[in-house]
Amino acid sequence: MAVCIIYHSETGNTRAVAERLAAVVGADLVAVRDLAGYSKVGMYLKGAPRAMREERAVIEPAAIDVSGYDTVVVGTPVWARSPTPAVNAAIEALSGIEGKAAVVFCTSGGMPGNTLERMKAMLAGRGADVWGAVGFSVRDVRQGAAVDALADLVRQSEKAKTVQ
Ligand SMILES: Cc1cc2nc3c(=O)[nH]c(=O)nc-3n(C[C@H](O)[C@H](O)[C@H](O)COP(=O)(O)O)c2cc1C
Predict the structure, then answer these.
(1) Which of 31, 72, 74, 125 is 20 to 30 Å apart from 22, CA to CA?
(2) What are the tens digits of pLDDT across the range 72-124?
């Protein structure tokens, strides 16, 4: 069973969760870059309002083909209680996502708002079979929080897809 983890990370927290999950479940990692190349201040002044408006960034890679995978995991930092513009764009850039299991996660300062619900709705809108979502706080990540709950969701989705 093949798992793909797609994530955006500017300051390393979301990447840390993605890499821990990949080590636990065995997965390919796709790091999405926002080509706006924000400075630290620019993330707040430009990135956060764009996230709030649910905009899509120009990203690299521009297209993400997941047809060779059974489960797709998407991870985002929370910006203005929302998924980042890079993640909005990444979900739109997916091809072959229809009918695939999807699991989402976010990392935040503790106020994720509707980020996970929005990601689940976007993926469901792309035809994915959404299994669940897990939120991590920055403190969780820095303390080396386990990714067990996320790994369990991935394993459950794999099992269900095998049975189908
Ligand atoms: C522009 C910006 C906006 C943010 N907005 C929120 C927010 O609304 N709620 C929250 O809990 N944390 C917020 N944070 C904190 C980040 O979600 C948190 O640091 C996250 O782990 C960053 O992920 P990364 O290290 O993978 O880039 C914000 C951070 C930035 C840079």
Answers:
(1) 125
(2) 999 999 999 999 999 999 999 999 999 999 999 999 999 999 999 999 999 99
Give one DSSP letter per residue of 123-160, joined into a string: HHHTT-EEEEEEEEEHHHHHTT---HHHHHHHHHHHHH
| pTM (whole model) above 0.85 | yes
- Residues 13-44 have pLDDT tens digits of 999 999 999 999 999 999 999 999 999 999 99
Decide: 109 in ligand 1 pocket, CB within 6 A.
yes
Task: Give the mutation target among 78, 106, 134, 139 for probing the ligand 1 site: most ligand atoms within 8 A of CB.
Answer: 78
Q: Which atom of ligand 1 is nearest to the CA of 109?
A: 11
CA of 150 to the centre of ligand 1 (A): 20
Whether ligand 1 lies within 6 angstroms of the CB of 12 is answered as yes
Answer yes or no: CATH 3.40.50.360 is held by domain 3-158. Answer: yes
